[in-house]
């Protein structure tokens, strides 16, 4: 570590980390204490609530029965009571049975949703049937204690989920606030002071106007550069007039140049701190979009769509969103380059806000499909603005670190948003969750207007090397067709795309986004439970992706990890053959998360390795863009095809079919790469297989 780094670490690095750790620890303690308190209250609050519900239902039903008795009908001859009780129980899942007994306790009528052979299992509320001041019988309303225990357990799960998600969100916000208001300004000041003290007067882009110390230091460096330039111009003019006098001053000029550094340079020392600013924006737009993941297909299926096939009914809005992403993404990058990161992000955020707001305010199926497509277009613009911001402020030496920060925010949103959205949908309803997502997108737009103030300038000032590495600009149509023709003749690229890239996104959208909510809902799981199940994918990706990336780099195991990830995904879905259950769905989600953690990062390395010849002429960016487009088209097809499978064979059989598809495509990918490796055993491409 250099002397400047030691000085910077001593001045602010350790104190900032200590402050951050202290505040985070305080948040953990407070949130944990509140969660434990809520946990302890869950049973004593829920039981009286269910008791009140049973009493209220009993009062209403007994009043209706007493009214019928008032017409002179004997209690033993009331018609249609069991059927009426059955309808009431269907609308009130928390009630286990309804019974009417006479004064001696003999059961006259009853309807039940549970086995009542063990009466100690039930909480019984008895209400008298009073006619003309005399009790003629009793109405009994029962609540199954197992149902109570399940509700308490679910409530405690929700408390735990709220604890985890609130801590993750607090971490993102705390990191952003500390970076914006303390870490980045202090690092800027300390770095400039250390460089000026060491004789480095090179100019960086000017600091914000609200940073007076950094602005003063920048002014000192600017004055030093101005004086040095004036000295060189004066020496040059005097060289023509008095060459001998200037010759005697040449050693002094050379010594000045050796001791001090002047001129302009790009700013590369605040990369991490700049990316943290856009990390929170990435988190916000992903959070806004993913809130509806646990219930979107169920909500779509609840809206009337006359004449539409049942396989398309629930899946079409998801496909519309993914098509909006796929078709907008190739143009969004170039548009963001021209318009600037700040303006393009704000435009994308406002588009997402409009799409979510329409979804929440207009309960119409056609409006839902159009709004989802619009939301997908806005999502693509926001994504490319954030990715472009990372590319603007990184180079080949630190781009992986910058992208890791960017992708990390997406993974955190993948964990938090579905869980929060499921809990809110159970308690507030679908439409309010969409409106909450619209408010989050609006907040993201307002935040971007503040923190990305310099992004317009930096997007234009990026060095040529960085700009050429950006995979955002679309090539001319003729070049794209030529490149596509060459890629079609590349067996490895075709195998990687058709047998791995497309199936991976197909399974992600078809299984995780569409089938999981549909299947779990059909099994009787609540939206909160669906959100908790979906979280598992985000946890697996966040925890294991860096590990598998390290393994792939160390052992050159890219193709093996891609094949193994797909095989694991398929094997995790096949056990549903023995019976559909929440555990089987959880197994499939876990296998998908682990499998895609193994394969996703390795796929891009393989793309670069197997297309070296094409990249020499077209560049890596257009090839990666072509691969990404194929992936996104696969993602758009996932819900559509899976919806048809559900309509024809049922949700469990659809999951089994997806598992078989994942297994077969991955085995075929492994065989093709093994055959290609035998045909071309030497070189990096052969080593990749």
From TrEMBL:
InterPro entries: MFS (IPR011701), MFS_dom (IPR020846), MFS_Efflux_Transporters (IPR050189), MFS_trans_sf (IPR036259), Sugar_transporter_CS (IPR005829). GO terms for cellular component: plasma membrane. Residues 274-677 form the Major facilitator superfamily (MFS) profile domain. The keyword tRNA processing does not apply. It holds the Pfam family MFS_1. Keywords: Cell membrane, Membrane, Transmembrane, Transmembrane helix. One of its GO terms (molecular function) is transmembrane transporter activity. The chain crosses the membrane at residues 20-39, 159-183, 276-296, 316-333, 345-363, 369-391, 403-424, 430-452, 493-518, 530-549, 561-578, 584-608, 653-676. The keyword Hydrolase does not apply. It is a multi-pass membrane protein. It is found in: Cell membrane. PANTHER family: CHLORAMPHENICOL EFFLUX PUMP RV0191, PURINE EFFLUX PUMP PBUE. This is MFS transporter. It comes from Pseudoduganella rivuli. The lineage of its organism: Bacteria, Pseudomonadati, Pseudomonadota, Betaproteobacteria, Burkholderiales.
């Amino acid at each position: 570590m250099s002397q400047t780094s030691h000085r910077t670490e001593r001045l602010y690095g350790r104190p900032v980390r200590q402050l951050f750790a202290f505040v985070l620890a305080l948040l953990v303690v407070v949130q944990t204490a509140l969660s434990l308190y809520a946990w302890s209250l869950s049973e004593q609050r829920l039981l009286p609530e269910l008791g009140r519900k049973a009493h209220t239902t009993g009062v209403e039903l007994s009043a209706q029965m007493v009214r019928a008795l008032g017409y002179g009908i004997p209690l033993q001859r009331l018609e249609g009571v069991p059927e009426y009780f059955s309808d009431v129980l269907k609308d009130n899942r928390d009630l286990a049975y309804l019974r009417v007994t006479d004064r001696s306790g003999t059961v006259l009528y009853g309807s039940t949703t549970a086995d009542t052979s063990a009466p100690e299992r039930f909480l019984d509320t008895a209400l008298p049937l009073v006619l003309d001041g005399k009790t003629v019988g009793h109405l009994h309303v029962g609540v199954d204690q197992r149902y109570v225990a399940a509700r308490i357990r679910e409530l405690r799960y929700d408390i735990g989920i709220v604890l985890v998600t609130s801590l993750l969100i607090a971490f993102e916000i705390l990191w952003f606030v500390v970076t914006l208001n303390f870490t980045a300004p202090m690092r800027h000041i300390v770095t400039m002071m250390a460089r000026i003290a060491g004789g480095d007067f090179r100019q960086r882009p000017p600091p914000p106007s609200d940073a007076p110390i950094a602005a003063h230091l920048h002014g000192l460096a600017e004055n030093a550069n101005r004086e040095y330039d004036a000295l060189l111009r004066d020496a040059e003019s005097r060289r023509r007039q008095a060459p001998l006098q200037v010759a005697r001053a040449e050693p002094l000029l050379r010594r000045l140049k050796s001791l001090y550094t002047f001129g302009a340079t790009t700013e590369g020392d605040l990369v991490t701190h700049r990316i943290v600013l856009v990390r929170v924006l990435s988190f916000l737009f992903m959070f806004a979009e993913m809130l509806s993941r646990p219930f979107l297909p169920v909500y779509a299926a609840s809206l009337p769509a006359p004449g539409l096939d049942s396989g398309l009914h629930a899946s079409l809005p998801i496909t519309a969103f993914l098509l909006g992403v796929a078709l907008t993404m190739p143009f969004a990058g170039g548009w963001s380059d021209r318009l600037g990161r700040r303006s393009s992000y704000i435009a994308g955020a406002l588009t997402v806000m409009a799409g979510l707001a329409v979804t929440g305010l207009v309960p119409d199926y056609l409006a839902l499909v159009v709004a989802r497509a619009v939301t997908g277009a806005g999502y693509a613009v926001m994504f490319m603005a954030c990715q472009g911001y990372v590319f603007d402020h990184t180079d080949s030496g630190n781009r992986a670190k910058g992208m890791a920060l960017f992708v990390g925010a997406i993974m955190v949103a993948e964990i938090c948003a579905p869980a929060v959205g499921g809990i809110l949908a159970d308690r507030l309803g679908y439409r309010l969750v969409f409106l909450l997502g619209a408010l989050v997108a609006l907040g993201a737009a307002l935040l971007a207007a503040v923190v990305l103030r310099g992004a317009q300038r930096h997007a234009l000032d990026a060095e040529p090397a960085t700009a050429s590495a950006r995979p955002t600009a679309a090539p001319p149509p003729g070049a794209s067709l030529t490149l596509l023709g060459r890629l079609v003749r590349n067996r490895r690229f075709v195998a990687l795309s058709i047998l791995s890239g497309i199936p991976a996104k197909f399974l992600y959208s078809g299984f995780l986004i569409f089938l999981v909510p549909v299947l779990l809902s059909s099994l009787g799981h609540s939206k909160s439970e669906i959100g908790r199940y979906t979280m598992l994918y985000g946890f697996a990706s966040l925890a294991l992706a860096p590990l598998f990336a390290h393994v792939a780099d160390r052992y050159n195991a890219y193709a093996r990890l891609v094949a193994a990830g797909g095989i694991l995904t398929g094997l995790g879905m096949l056990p549903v053959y023995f019976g559909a259950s929440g555990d089987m769905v959880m197994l499939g989600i876990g296998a998908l998360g682990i499998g895609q953690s193994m394969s996703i990062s390795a796929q891009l390395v393989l793309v670069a390795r197997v297309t070296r010849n094409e990249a020499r002429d077209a560049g890596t960016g257009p090839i990666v863009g072509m691969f990404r487009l194929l992936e996104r088209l696969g993602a758009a097809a996932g819900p559509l095809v899976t919806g048809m499978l559900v309509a024809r064979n049922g949700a469990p059989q659809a999951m089994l079919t997806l598992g078989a598809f994942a297994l077969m495509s991955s085995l075929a990918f492994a065989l093709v790469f093994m055959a290609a490796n035998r045909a071309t055993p030497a070189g990096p491409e052969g080593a990749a297989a």
